[in-house]
Amino acid sequence: xxxxxxxxxxxxxxxxxAVSAQEPQTVSWxxxxxxxxxxxxxxxxxxxxxxxxxxxxxxLKALGLANVRSEAFTIPGWVRGVxxxxxxxxYPHKLHITALGNSAPTPAAGISGELIYFQSLAALQAAxxxxxxxxxxxxxxxxxxxxDGSGYGPSGQARRQGPSVASxxxxxxxxxxxxxxxxxxDPHTGVxxxxxxxxxxxxxxxxAPDADLIARVAAKGKPMxxxxxxxxxxxxxxxSGNVVAExxxxxxxxxxxxxxxxLDSWDLGTGAIDDASGCAIITDAALRxxxxxxxxxxxxxxxxxxxxxxxxxxxxxxxxxxNVPHALAMESDFGxxxxxRVGFRLSEANKPLADKVAAALAPLGIVRGANRANGGTDxxxxxxxxxxxxxxxxxxxxxxxxxHHTPDDTLxxxxxxxxxxxxxAWLAVLGIVANEAGxxxxx
Amino acid sequence: xxxxxxxxxxxxxxxxxAVSAQEPQTVSWxxxxxxxxxxxxxxxxxxxxxxxxxxxxxxLKALGLANVRSEAFTIPGWVRGVxxxxxxxxYPHKLHITALGNSAPTPAAGISGELIYFQSLAALQAAxxxxxxxxxxxxxxxxxxxxDGSGYGPSGQARRQGPSVASxxxxxxxxxxxxxxxxxxDPHTGVxxxxxxxxxxxxxxxxAPDADLIARVAAKGKPMxxxxxxxxxxxxxxxSGNVVAExxxxxxxxxxxxxxxxLDSWDLGTGAIDDASGCAIITDAALRxxxxxxxxxxxxxxxxxxxxxxxxxxxxxxxxxxNVPHALAMESDFGxxxxxRVGFRLSEANKPLADKVAAALAPLGIVRGANRANGGTDxxxxxxxxxxxxxxxxxxxxxxxxxHHTPDDTLxxxxxxxxxxxxxAWLAVLGIVANEAGxxxxx
Lengths: 443, 443
What we know:
The structure is a homodimer. Chain A is 30% helix and 25% strand.
């Protein structure tokens, strides 16, 4: 069984009751609340992502940002379909399942087959092909919640690589335990990819309680069969796009500060923590910076599209603006909980700049981390292309993977107090780096 | 908005990770785990409830209980159907909805209509019929989590009475905020009833985040329309039944001790906390009592059927055993969290008995409450008919309504340590009352 309880260290914010309260009167809250309410889910390449771009252009112009525009690109997309699964033997149970992005479709009538249990991706990798061929592979795995989100890298491999490994061994479909740290009945979606040579097969994730059930039955040594209908399917050439805006600097010849978030979201929730909150945070901070007086350097905002299916927005932005010089990049894409650490990628010559930033953040309770910041998916292509400096404002990820890519990613999960702490941290950093006259360099 | 956060006082037990652990080797855990795994959801009147009765008879006999039998009755049942809802204007959103028990069906193609917002049942009651007629009524309401579960009475009226009130005013359907204290995306089902004169109409509950969304849109004054398909429908004459078993006493002429729980469950989860845990607790306690030596009085176990649709099992038991004398009744039907208080319904002459019970429970951290115990739904009909004494072992309900009647009512939500405390509390009480030679009387 999988039943280690953490009774005391409960990290989830839970809403107490349906008691009315005033909404915060901040730009960040308004962006977050309105985007999740008026648009909601915005899957890459979908009509709702397009509606979100239109919404963003109108809103960012209204807020007084400059050079607001939508920049189109197309993506190899994926559209969700019917998703239903049933454990049919030894005991009948409905399974709460969602398809992974890039899953191949089952026939509309579904498929049935033996469900073969693997305790981990490594166990699947070690299995002979004959144990998998013609079956539906189930990949279990452990994931622990922690402040820095470091469980996502290793345990997320079950989602990223698992389907491809199962396919290469001849599985007809694959089901994984959701990549998450909650025990709600809602599964976590997310993207997978099939390696060259591994045919795309239907791939889904079940909720943690459903995975527990499968693990318990497997532990009893009982053969399992499952009926699976997942009709989501890849669709090429879908329209997507970035939204870009600016706070123009006094000296347009100085390389700009690039700040990023992503506008698209998975479609199960309303994309509140992933990543409406990021766009809300960076935009409110940029506007507060502007309100303090025109900064020296231009601050360029990237609300990227199609991050969730593979970072296509970041790639498109780096390609489209390859010749527009930037100095430093930052991104907010880890929810809306408080910033607890700042990390840098700055040269030894820029140590005074880093010291100044760290000193400005200390009153917000933010500690200084190592000099190996990496930005985020949406700004990384430009960081690599232009060899940019980076500052990371690391957010508390203790409960992020309770909600990540689930129907539970909704507005009520955002704590306005922590959201505001993020904006203040971003403002503190922008106030320094956007007014830095000297060179800013990563090494 | 509805966004009061309780960050510190998070009551939910959350499972840390998929780390294997040994299952507890207790009868209570085995009953709970096996019933939720091998049977799972067991809606009153359904084939799965019948399978659960068969399972229970086999298990209780194997555990060494006496006179184990299934006692059939029929119920006015209800069967679940398709349940889909979409906010169609002013913004398109999928709503996470479930039908309430006794909901009338929509046509298979669903219905569409204006969604009219009421902040509470009282607001709906106060509205003129003209504001409701032909529309789909939405009933919002507040519910607070608390140890004694006392929020369920008042806020649950939105579910129990709301549909009937809406119907009487001419609503074509009704949607309520789930009766619950969580903020997961899963709605809470539960039974409603239509008063004489109020036609049954389609009735559903949306999850708290969906209700928040509706409340936010309503607060903006925007007209809302909703498309609703709820095909669940009443079905008369469904087969149900109780399972009864005994630990025979040394003196069969003494009135027995009746201990109850319910075997049926709502069908969204696996009925772990509602109420497999109750049956697990009372049965383990009865078996430990037996292991200590034959008690003076017979202890009669009632695993009632069809509690969730209206306490039909308790009614059937009271009618079938009207002439079998009982002295005192107890029930476990409030989850699996620790017992924190003991309540009595005992005569002044039985004060020494109550004192003895309270003293035996004190080492388990259980405080003494008032002398107004009421048993539970499954034993109440017999309490009323035979004027029985009652002892309540009140469980901590702080997180009960996070899970109650949702897909999240699964095995992983049960804390084995607290489950065991329940069994020990029950054993302490049974050891006293089942060996009481003198009369036991409620007043």
